[in-house]
């Protein structure tokens, strides 16, 4: 019951925009919740060769903040990154494997992530790699 009364006093003071009344009421002010840590920017850490016509893109992890990762790729020099094909990957641990690529062609990659709060990160800086 005491918690409910304290919550009522705090709500009333918030409505009236007078935080001093909380202290005068005999209740201690609840400190604001700690802001969440800002997420670090996504980065492609490396692009590895696999079998002929394969590249595996490795990227940083956002841990539990990320619902899933998106990696887009195109041949180097392709304009308008928003039109590049995008593939969905469940985690950062396994990276993104691209198969059936053309050997001798340079591909450009970017990674982004959908977060658990429903937002989307910015796309990472582009990384180029020639397929062998």
Q: What's the layout of helices and strands?
A:
Blueprint: H1 2-16, H2 20-24, E1 44-49, E2 55-59, E3 66-75, E4 86-89, E5 96-98, E6 106-115, E7 127-130
Antiparallel strand pairs: 1-2, 2-5, 3-4, 3-6, 6-7
Reading the helices and strands in chain order gives: HHEEEEEEE
What is the name of the CATH topology of the largest domain?
Answer: Immunoglobulin-like
The strand count comes to 7
Q: Within the largest sheet, what's the order of strands?
A: 4-3-6-7
Q: How would you characterize the largest beta sheet?
A: 4 strands, antiparallel
Q: How many H/I helical runs?
A: 2
How many structural domains in the coordinates? 2
N/C terminus separation: 70 Å
Question: In the CATH classification, which architecture of the largest domain applies?
Answer: Sandwich
**Low-pLDDT stretches:** none
CATH homologous superfamily identity of the largest domain: Immunoglobulins
CATH class membership of the largest domain: Mainly Beta
Integer average pLDDT = 84
Structural class: alpha+beta
Q: In what range is the share of β-strand residues? A: 25-35%
Form type:
elongated
């Amino acid at each position: 019951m005491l918690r409910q009364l304290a919550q009522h006093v705090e709500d009333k003071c918030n409505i009236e925009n007078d935080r001093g009344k909380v202290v005068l009421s005999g209740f201690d002010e609840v400190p604001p919740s700690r802001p969440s840590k800002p997420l670090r920017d996504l980065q492609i850490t490396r692009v590895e060769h696999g079998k002929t016509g394969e590249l595996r893109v490795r990227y940083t992890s956002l841990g539990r903040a990320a619902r899933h990762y998106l990696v887009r790729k195109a041949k180097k020099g392709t304009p308008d990154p928003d039109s590049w094909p995008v593939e969905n990957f469940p985690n950062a641990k396994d990276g993104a494997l691209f198969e059936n690529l053309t050997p001798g062609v340079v591909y450009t990659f970017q990674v982004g992530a959908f977060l658990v709060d429903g937002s989307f990160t910015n796309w990472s800086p582009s990384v180029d790699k020639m397929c062998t």
